[in-house]
Amino acid sequence: MGNDTTIFWFRRDLRLTDNAGLYHALRDNEHVVPVFIFDTVILDALEDIEDRRVEFIHQTLAGLKAQLEALGSSLVILHGNPVTLYRVLHPRAVYTNHDYEPYARERDGAIQKLLEKKGIGFHAYKDQVIFEKDEVVKDDGKPYTVFTPYSRKWKAALTPFYLKRYPVEKYTGHFKKIKHQPFPGLEDIGFQRTGAQFPERVIRTGIIEKYDRTRDFPDVHGTTRLSVHLRFGTVSIRKLCQVAQQKNQVWLNELIWREFYAMILWHFPHVQTESFKPKYDRIAWRNDPAEFDLWCTGQTGYPIVDAGMRELNATGFMHNRVRMITASFLTKHLLIDWRWGEAYFGQKLLDYDLASNNGGWQWAAGSGCDAAPYFRVFNPALQTKKFDPDHAYIKKWVPEYQTDAYARPVVEHALARQRALNTYKKGLG
């Protein structure tokens, strides 16, 4: 790269506007080269070579590269283990934004040590959240484990300073002038096209204004579909919080839930593989592979559950209300370990985010912080009556519903509920 070159490393922040780390890199340096690494540690763990998320990243990078080339620069795309790649790079400094997941923390720590040995600075900034790490904690300095007091403290701490945008455009002349860089195809990194349709990167204020009234109805286009853009940083969280403050406090609360779960993962990384409440790991899960397969494929005989799973499999999206219903059904009706369901969502969700996915699954199972109590077992029929009363959502995804071709229920609700209560009581002592 050369000693006059500074690297900006894109990760979960795939945009040129209002990007904290990119702003600091350009403001502090005159020859900034943007880099993205297809991280083989992450990619090699993906089971399906037709992965919608990889295709979304690939498409987004094509747009970023075009923007950079219009500025006389380009985007360097690498493929490999970032730690190994940085061993052979000798830039003046590396700038990036924080990532809070356990693997990312381990990776970044290793790279920082490696660079420091060479006298190269590693500078990381807060960008994907409004408040991080210890910025919103209890008065005694301990992390919150209940959402409502966390959200109150979060809102009390919020000032216009935290929503101020980073004016990257002031310093775009500091991108290094380089020739157009090669752009690998999906096949070059071991993947194939899916033909997926991705949600537009559009902030629909009309939907946000009505969000509190429409968000629970899966047949209504009542949510913004911005979650994938938040996940990969193609929109700014600061911009979204500004809109939420002005338009809808319920939508703002959803953004705060995202930060709450990110904070939980930061302070309690064991939740990635273990229950937040350790005693919940004593539950004797049934873990029936055949029943798990029926759940995965949307053949449980419970229409709202099957509609949700089929929507997920077909599109990579599932409505949030339906996520709760399907997760409750797996963990309570079928008594299958929440980790199985979390991993399946982790394979399929376009907006998959470790902290939020883990938090949602542990909430449904009762094992998480501020979770639904174990004795709360969603009744799919009542959920349908409340949130899909005309069965419009169900009929869209389960066309054989109300015909002889539709699957028989895998278990009877009252029996399953009582079995869950007995199993949880026994496991929890």
TrEMBL record:
One of its GO terms (molecular function) is DNA binding. SUPFAM superfamilies: Cryptochrome/photolyase FAD-binding domain, Cryptochrome/photolyase, N-terminal domain. Binds 1 FAD per subunit. Pfam families: DNA_photolyase, FAD_binding_7. Residues 4-130 form the Photolyase/cryptochrome alpha/beta domain. Keywords: Chromophore, FAD, Flavoprotein. The record marks W285, W338, W361 as: Electron transfer via tryptophanyl radical. Its cofactor is (6R)-5,10-methylene-5,6,7,8-tetrahydrofolate; FAD. One of its GO terms (biological process) is nucleobase-containing compound metabolic process. FAD binds at residues 211, 223-227, 251, 254-261, 351-353. Belongs to the DNA photolyase family. This is DNA photolyase family protein. The lineage of its organism: Bacteria, Pseudomonadati, Bacteroidota, Cytophagia, Cytophagales.
